[in-house]
Structures are given as structure tokens and as C-alpha cells.
Amino acid sequence: MLETAGRVALISGATRGIGRAIALRLKAAGYEVCAGVRDPKRGTVPPGVFATRYDAAAPDGAVAWVIAGVKEFGRIDVLVNAAGINPMARLMDLDETALDDQWTLNAKGPMRAIRAAWPHLVASGEGRVVNVSSLSGKRVRNENVGYAMSKFALMALTHAVRREGWEHGIRATALCPGFVDTDMTKHVSKVPRAQMTRPEDIAALVETLVRLPNSASIAELLVNCQREDML
Fold first, then answer.
1. Does the predicted TM-score (pTM) go above 0.90?
2. Of 44, 87, 115, 222, which cross-links 98 as Cys (Cβ 3.0–4.6 Å)?
3. Band (42; pLDDT cuts 50, 70, 90)
4. Is 147 annotated in the active site?
5. List 147, 151, 185, 197, catalytic entry
6. Dihedral of CA 24/25/29/35: which sign?
């Protein structure tokens, strides 16, 4: 396992849910953590975490986040793209606003963050990218096709990073949870909340992923609170 001392992790979506749990876990493990948040003065930033503004919808938002992180810590070793949204975007909806928002935040946002962090991940020699996708990036089982489309795209992005970053020591993983007990699933009634995966358990998996050596890379990690057929 890689040592954590001196390593720096950038994490989006770190004020709540899965992103917050990951930030807390990596900070406790010894990483320096730079959280990219929409408003550093609002929300609940984990203790000891450096927070800076990150607007995933802005074309230059990721560049500003990376510059701030490097200015504060001098390097980047880990990038976790945990921010995401899931407004309803059905196949036959003529209004594509929700679809466009999901595409921007869930797919283009991580792509821009990876581009901005790329030279620093290369310089690390053991750069790690974790894209928090979803089981909806592996199959379509509800009417929110826009969310599934954006998460399928995130899967493709992850494999592109693996392909182009391999020789530089960059390893990327698409983390695909099912129902997790967060605000994003508060509308779900078919699965009791007590049976949903806990954000803290997802965070524990992320720590393992980013600490694995270059010779033990995991491309996709599927996590479920229910039994499903093989995907």
C-alpha cells in the first residue's frame, strides 16, 4: 500500500454525502485534502480540510480549483470526482435543461478537473483518479435516462484516463455504488434507508483504491446493497 504522508487529494462534492465521507476518511488517513466547493463560506467543510471555490459548471472552474490546491500544498496526487446531480431527465422530455445540467456536472465537470490536474498527476508518478459513477452507469433500470447517460459517459472517461495515463503511473477507477444513504436518495422509498450502503463504507473503499500500488489497479468497483444479476 502507498504511504499517505505528504500526498495531496483534491475532492469535489466534499460538503455532504459520499464526498464529505471521503474527505474525512482521507484526511484521517494522513492525506492533505483540498475540497472544491461551490461556496467555501457555506456548507459543512470537514475539519482540517482546505476548501476553495470550484464551479463545476464553469469551463475554467477546474483550473482555478487546481491552481488553488497547488498553491496551498505544492502538488496533487489524488483526484476524486464525487460531485454530481440527478434531476429527472426522461427519454421523451422535450425540455432538455435537466439533461444538459447532468451532462455538464456529471460528465464534463470530471473531465475538466482531470485535464486541469493532469500534469500534477503525471509528476506524482503514482497519480490516482476516482470517478464516483453509479450502477446507473452500468445499466438502465429507471426512467431517469439523463442520469444514466451522464454516468455511462463517466465510465468511458475513466477508461480513457486509464489508457492515456498508464505509462505515467496514473491509475483510474470508476466507483459504482447503488443506493447510498445520502440526500441524493432521500426520495427513494423502495429500499429502506437502514439497508442502504453507508457513505463511510464507500469512503473506506476509496482509501483502499488510492493507496493501491501501480501494479494493483482496479478499473471498476461495483458496490450494491441489493442482490442483482451480474452486470
1. yes
2. 87
3. low
4. yes
5. 147
6. negative
